[in-house]
Amino acid sequence: MKKNKFIVLEGIEGSGKSEMCFYLYKILSKNNINKVICVRQPGGTIICEKIRKIIKEEIKDDKIDKKTEILLLYASRIQLIENKIKLYLKNDYWVICDRHNLSTMAYQIAAEKKNKTLIKKLTKMLLKNFNPYLTIYLDVLPVIGLNRISIRGKLDRIEKKGINFFTKVRKNYLRQIKKAPNTFTINASLEKQEVKKKIKKKFIFWLKNEWKINEI
Ligand code: Z5A
Fold it and tell me: Which CATH code is given to the segment(s) 6-215?
């Protein structure tokens, strides 16, 4: 796999990805690595944020088709990669991304198994060999993750799908993670400080070994 500074966080809702993206950012900046950006999928550019809104919204009198959803996710992903991520990587930035292709493998295959072939074809055609050099999977039990986000407030279209759906999503993640290179899993059902401690330890080990950053 080609070495790059593209790092992805994956996990179901309430696993703590958004917070941990900023935690990685902080770890890097504490170590004088200041060329870092955080982005999310779907989203991350003006066009991608518009696509995100369509994906997440519940639209009265119209229902998004499962294939439309997949195509929108890839449209947003490619837009973000080509117009932002690659440019920043080229300028020697670290790019920390909240979700990437494994999300589609986990969510859209849980929504409809027969779309696996389409997803694989789109991955091959559109992403080619462009992969994150590190993926951190935050593994939370669906009951815990859903409880965290229900405390937070109103649920969106996908969040409303319920425990059975998220149990399938998690199963897909665990299956994919086993096959994915350069990945580590963190038990994200634990208390926040404990999760941070585990991430810090593994991330710093990775930086020292993969990037030979010794001063960390
Ligand atoms: N989606 C898809 O279907 N296919 C795809 O290919 C892609 C995405 C790329 C994006 O919405 C939606 O798109 C998502 C999947 C779908 N749908 N859903 N549902 P999003 O960005 O709004 O959703 P999200 O990515 O899951 O974000 P989230 O719900 O905010 O979860 P999070 O980022 O993992 O967690 P967080 O925001 O950091 O924390 C959530 C809350 O839990 C917050 O109040 C924290 O303080 C709390 N938290 C976090 N960790 C802990 C611990 N350890 N203990 C206690 N409380 C905690």
Answer: 3.40.50.300
Name the residue with the closest Cα to ligand 1, atom 26. Answer: 13
Distances (CA, A) of 76 to 24, 34, 93: 24, 26, 21
Which residue among 12, 13, 65, 191 is best mutated to probe the pocket of ligand 1, counting the most ligand atoms within 8 A of its Cβ? 13
Summarised one tens digit per residue, pLDDT across range 28-81 is: 999 899 999 999 999 999 999 999 999 999 888 999 999 999 999 999 999 999
Pocket lining for ligand 1, CB < 6 angstroms:
11, 13-19, 40-42, 56, 73, 98-99, 103-104, 107-108, 148-149, 152, 158-159, 188, 191-192, 195
In this prediction the pTM is 0.96
* Domain boundary assignment for the chain: 6-215
Parallel, antiparallel or unpaired: strands 36-40 and 94-98: parallel
Contact 75, 18 (CB under 8 A): no
User: How far is residue 199's CA from residue 196's CA, in Å, rounded to a whole number?
Assistant: 5
CA 148 to chain centre: 18
Closest atom, ligand 1, to C-alpha of 148? 42
* CA 111 to ligand 1: nearest atom: 3
Mutate to test the pocket of ligand 1, among 21, 158, 166, 199 (most ligand atoms within 8 A of CB): 158
**Sign of the CA dihedral 111, 163, 166, 77?**
positive
